[in-house]
Amino acid sequence: MATGTNITNPAASDAGLKRVNLAEIVGGGYRKFWNCRCRYRVVKGGKASKKSTTAALWFIVHLMKYPQANLLVVRNVFNTHYYSTFAQLKWAINRLGVSQHWKATVSPLELRYLPTGQRILFRGFDDVYKLASTTVDSGHLCWVWIEEGFEIASQADFEKLDLSVPRGEIPPPLFKQTTITFNPWNEKHWLKKRFFDQQSPDVLTLTTNYKCNEFLDKTDLAVYERLREEQPRRYAVAGLGEWGIAEGLIYERWEVGEFDSKSLTSPHNPDLWKYRHVFGLDYGYTNDPTAFIAMAVNPVDKLLYIYDEHYETRMLNDSIAEMIISKGYAKERIRADSAEP
User: Fold this and answer.
1) What gap in Å lies between CA 156 and CA 131, rounded to an integer?
2) How far is 102 from 94, CA to CA, in rounded Å?
3) What top-level class would CATH report for the domain 261-336?
4) Where in the chain is the domain with CATH 3.30.420.280?
5) 109: helix, strand or coil
6) What is the mean pLDDT of residues 19-24?
């Protein structure tokens, strides 16, 4: 549970605010998130894991609790806010029953808490320098929410923002905090190395999934169960919030095991007619590595046995040729793309 008690808004007690039961509104699975005061609060999760809705509820509750706090909400592209974070925060306002105390404007895109004038600002990483200069005219811009953080391809862009907002001395009981929520589609993303691969007392990292969402019904759960059975790799990412690559993954049913590649195409194998050896090469250089693969293919039973591979950046043609010769494939027919590095 996020909290087990009813919470009244102490920041504007004369504004006619009512008491609400946050435990019923927020639900379970996010107690650490709700109580965290770390400098960074980073949540990866599967779809329907409540990470965005819980964040939206947290910000509305705490903005109303701390009359000097302001919030900056960031996405990779500014124009994506209207139907995502802007709508999510308006939903949270309505869910908490306090819509009469908030004003939403489209130009500029902004939410304002009427009793105190506090603001929720929306910006995009498509203009990172303008983003970094964002300020407020009253109180402190002490909280940042980066939604769909996986879309931020560059750690350098994140650091430009992080060095600028929040900045300066923040008087207690306020505190600086940047919240990042995202789906973990690729384990190679900079977010993993920056926040998850090393522990820090300034960082809270959480992994959440649909199982903590008590607001899903049986039909919703059936979708995830079907995904678990039919697409286990995608289920691990989109369902359980594990690191991986889900979108665009060609083969989801695979395993690592021992086999004899020569025996597959041996004359003694009764299924010899089903198999043939195939070799592929994809040129790369600096950012995209050169990739070579050798495999036995069984198109009848739709099986691939990969028995050799090479994956390396900054390879020139002569280095690629040397690699192929050293592996003993100089006389094989190798299919490659037509572009040179």
Assistant:
1) 14
2) 10
3) alpha beta
4) 261-336
5) strand
6) 88
The per-residue pLDDT for 18 is 67
pLDDT digits (tens, 9 = 90+) for 96-121: 999 999 999 999 999 999 999 999 99
Alpha-carbon gap, residue 68 to 84, rounded angstroms: 25
CA-based nearest residue to 234, from 216, 247, 215: 247
**What is d(CA 311, CA 292) in angstroms, rounded to the nearest whole number?**
7
Q: What does the pLDDT read at residue 338? A: 62
Residues contacting 51, CB < 8 A, separation 6+: 43, 45, 181, 208
The closest alpha carbon to 2, from 239, 214, 242, belongs to 214
Measured distance CA(71)–CA(119) in Å, rounded = 7
Choice between 244 and 296, residue whose per-residue pLDDT is larger = 296
- 3-state secondary structure at position 52: helix
| Whether the predicted pLDDT of 3 surpasses 90 | no
Residue 263 has pLDDT above 90, yes or no: no
For residues 100 and 106, the answer to whether their CB atoms sit within 8 Å is: no
DSSP annotation of 182 reads: E
CA 316 distance to own-chain centroid: 35
Amino acid at residue number 131? L
CATH number of 6-239: 3.40.50.300
CB 74 within 8 A of CB 130: no
Query: In this structure, are residues 121 and 110 in contact, taking their beta carbons and an 8 Å threshold?
Result: yes
Q: Where in the chain is CATH 3.40.50.300?
A: 6-239
